[in-house]
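Weekly sync, protein design subgroup
Attendees: M.S., D.O., the rotation student, P.L. (late)

Item 1: inverse folding check
M.S. brought a backbone from last month's batch and wanted to see whether the design step gives back something sensible before we order anything. D.O. pointed out we never logged the input encoding, so this time it goes straight into the notes. Structure tokens as presented (792 positions):
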């Protein structure tokens, strides 16, 4: 992309005015700081015989270059076509200047901080192959040095305190480079030329091994850590964005002990391995998944496990998928090489607290969980959890967008009318800022109900505004008055911009696809407050980035016990049995669900509790009825395990249980194995169409009574619900002359359901937008909020 005076006039015309002597001011925008961009410009400018300067400033990179028209044009071409590997160039703007005789060479000059920052901060990236080769070379001065990096790799976002990106503005400010490192930093031919985190064993951060009380242990820290891991002990390991808890993933006793200490009964542990070959020994990896694993972003990838497996069975109990990532720092590389086996590498926290990232906090919070701490003296400014992607038959989907992805900007499908701070929801919290033509989402923060997470949320709001020079004119927030993010927003001295939860979900999908026209949005999740004061969660909305209309939803049922129903899915099974199958069936099923069933049934019959249309709670009900999960130990567990059960049965062998579609007082049922007819997509419907899964749950109960294999019943539940959703959505889209449907909300992390719905909609001639880069869960809410407030 090019702009400015020279961008709109031909090179030939410019040459005819100024002759061979040209002077250009070149503004480069995008992710161009902390990625070796100035050394890149320097090398090419010198090779092209240009004079002038290059510097960082608050807007990106500014080049003042003088030389022949051909050389300047070639530099401009290379800036866009051949940038450094980690750079993301969004604009190259050229302005003609009058040539001067002042410049005698080409130089990198000191950064200038002028005006509001607009330059994106680079993400943290995995150690490059050249640096790893040095770490593994006994003859190299960085042999086994855990903090080796260069302009092409290493920490960025987690160490940046402010912009422009220079060493004094990072947590490396306290480390003075030794003569050898300074020589690399000053040498234009060296790949560490102006590498801000540059360091070596003589001048850089140092590794330490501590006992659980925080007392240093004598000996080589790396050797002590490797020995502990090989012995099956549990360590806290300080990484790029925070601490992990690590142990031998093949040692069942060690994994079980980690679960006991962390109070994590069932939630799967993430794994770290040395390379793709090691990952293939544990998981079935598509080429796309392998590419993601080995990319500089280094996310955790969820993929089907292989059998037999060397892993302890308790790594991911009850699930067919494993979460695996490759080593992304020299320290991880060295630990894996020494241990010689896969390692559990899970977030360094207790239960749902945020990961520890400060050393004193790590000792305080993690000391009782571990046998030792592997730490170092390079501060982490911003904690940043690992990103998570799920590998499906239809590609990769970001489930948690954090290290390696945040804070990379997303393009807005238009120019922001105002600068926005968006504070997200309550769970899987992120915050976003919007200005000009971009929206920037923070790293994953977590669940705000925990004090430490809320404190991290407060830090993230200030840090994002500072880094991107956003002076918010409005604060976008959820409708739920009890969300801490909402309360925070309303306490600010800013105009509030309330955004309905499910509208924000769909909007985040529209932003990802750059879509501005109206769509039928299907937003299925756990809970979100509706404008009517009830708990929505199974919604069909006609919407764009300026507004929405609710045109359909799942049938509403009572939530017995409020938040207790989320922790105990059997409550929702009883509620749905009563609402859809009758009091007698509910009483028949109750004793098999929980000993407290009579009291809860009384609450249901009295109509006590809020009503919800939640699709997530419907999955909970089905899971409990099947005996898959009647109580959960982590969010979404019942639905995750239900999907895992259903995936044992091919879709071609799955029954299709019926659902009822009601519109305008009429009702019809989908056929058991029928497809969508094109006629069904053109019939009109009332704005309050209802999808009633009572017949579906009736079929589930009938097949359970008949002794049908639970996996077949789980597959039938998915097939019936998915086809019913597609049937109603196609009809609603046809009635409104819409050609596009967007799927969003945490329920659409379910790959089985997503595929069924998408296939049905495509068969009906509709275009389907699904999430790939922005999480469909509440981690994407702030993106949708920001876009709505910025563009409305």
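Designed sequence read out in the meeting:
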């Amino acid at each position: 992309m090019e702009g400015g005076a020279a961008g709109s006039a031909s090179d030939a015309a410019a040459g005819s005015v100024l002759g061979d002597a040209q002077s250009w001011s070149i503004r480069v925008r995008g992710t161009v700081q902390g990625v070796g961009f100035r050394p890149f410009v320097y090398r090419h400018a010198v090779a092209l015989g240009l004079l002038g300067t290059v510097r960082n400033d608050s807007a990106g990179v500014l080049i003042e270059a003088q030389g022949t028209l051909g050389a300047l044009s070639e530099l401009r071409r290379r800036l866009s076509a051949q940038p450094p590997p980690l750079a993301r160039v969004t604009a190259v703007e050229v302005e003609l200047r009058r040539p001067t005789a002042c410049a005698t060479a080409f130089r990198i000059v000191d950064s200038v901080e002028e005006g509001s920052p607009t330059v994106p901060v680079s993400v943290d990236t995995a150690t490059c192959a050249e640096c790893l080769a040095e770490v593994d070379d006994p003859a190299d001065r960085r042999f086994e040095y855990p903090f080796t990096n260069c302009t092409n790799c290493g920490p960025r976002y987690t160490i940046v305190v402010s912009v422009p990106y220079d060493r004094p503005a990072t947590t490396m400010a306290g480390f003075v480079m030794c003569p050898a490192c300074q020589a690399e930093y000053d040498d234009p031919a060296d790949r560490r030329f102006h590498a801000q985190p540059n360091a070596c064993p003589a001048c850089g951060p140092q590794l330490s091994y501590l006992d659980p009380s925080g007392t240093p242990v004598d000996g080589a820290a790396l050797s002590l850590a490797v020995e502990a891991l090989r012995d099956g002990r549990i360590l806290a390991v300080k990484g790029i964005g925070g601490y992990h808890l690590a142990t031998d993933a093949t040692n069942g006793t060690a994994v079980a002990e980690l679960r006991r200490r962390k109070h994590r009964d069932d939630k799967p542990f993430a794994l770290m391995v040395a390379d793709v070959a090691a990952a293939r020994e544990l998981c079935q990896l598509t080429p796309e998944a392998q590419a993601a694993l080995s990319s500089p972003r280094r996310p955790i990838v969820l993929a089907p496990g292989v059998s037999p497996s060397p892993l302890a069975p308790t790594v991911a109990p009850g699930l067919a998928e494993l979460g695996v990532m490759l080593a992304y720092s020299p320290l991880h590389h060295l630990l894996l090489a020494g241990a010689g086996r896969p390692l559990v590498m899970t977030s360094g926290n207790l239960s749902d607290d945020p990961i520890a990232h400060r050393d004193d906090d790590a000792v305080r919070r993690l000391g009782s969980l571990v046998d030792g701490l592997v730490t170092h003296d390079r501060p982490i400014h911003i904690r940043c959890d690992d990103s998570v992607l799920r590998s499906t038959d239809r590609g990769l989907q970001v489930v948690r967008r954090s290290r390696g992805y945040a804070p990379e900007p997303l393009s807005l499908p238009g120019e922001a009318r105002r600068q926005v701070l968006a504070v997200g929801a309550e769970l899987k919290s992120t915050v976003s800022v919007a200005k000009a033509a971009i929206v920037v989402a923070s790293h994953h923060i977590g669940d705000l109900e925990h004090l430490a997470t809320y404190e991290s949320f407060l830090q993230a709001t200030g840090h994002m505004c500072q880094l991107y020079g956003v002076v918010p004119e409005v604060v976008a927030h959820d409708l739920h008055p009890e969300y801490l993010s909402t309360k925070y927003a309303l306490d600010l001295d800013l105009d509030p911009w309330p955004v309905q939860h499910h509208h924000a979900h769909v909007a985040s999908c529209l932003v990802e696809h750059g879509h501005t026209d109206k769509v039928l949005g299907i937003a299925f999740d756990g809970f979100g407050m509706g404008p009517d004061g009830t708990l929505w969660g199974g919604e069909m909305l006609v919407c764009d980035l300026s507004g929405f209309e609710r045109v359909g939803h799942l049938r509403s049922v009572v939530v017995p016990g409020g938040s207790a129903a989320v922790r105990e899915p059997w409550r929702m099974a009883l509620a749905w049995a009563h609402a859809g199958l009758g009091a007698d069936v509910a009483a028949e099923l109750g004793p098999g669900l929980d000993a407290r069933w009579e009291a809860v049934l009384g609450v249901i019959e009295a109509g006590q509790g809020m009503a919800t249309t939640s699709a997530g709670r419907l999955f909970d009900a089905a899971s409990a009825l099947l005996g898959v999960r009647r109580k959960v130990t982590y969010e979404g567990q019942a639905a995750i395990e239900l999907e895992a059960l259903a995936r044992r049965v091919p879709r071609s062998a799955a029954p299709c249980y019926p659902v009822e579609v009601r519109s305008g007082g009429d009702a019809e049922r989908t056929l058991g194995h029928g497809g969508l007819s094109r006629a069904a997509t053109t019939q009109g419907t009332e704005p309050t169409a209802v999808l009633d899964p009572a017949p579906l749950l009736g079929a589930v109960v009938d097949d359970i009574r008949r002794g049908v294999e639970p996996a077949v019943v789980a597959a039938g539940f998915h097939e019936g619900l998915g086809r019913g959703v597609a049937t109603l959505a196609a009809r609603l889209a046809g009635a409104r002359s819409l050609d596009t449907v967007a799927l969003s909300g945490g329920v659409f992390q379910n790959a089985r359901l997503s595929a069924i719905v998408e296939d049905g909609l495509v068969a009906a001639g509709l275009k389907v937008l699904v999430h790939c880069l922005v999480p469909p869960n509440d981690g994407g809410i702030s993106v949708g909020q920001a876009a709505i407030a910025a563009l409305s």
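Discussion: Residues 1-19, 665-686 have pLDDT under 50 and may be disordered. The two ends are 26 Å apart (CA to CA).
Action: P.L. to compare against the previous round before Friday.
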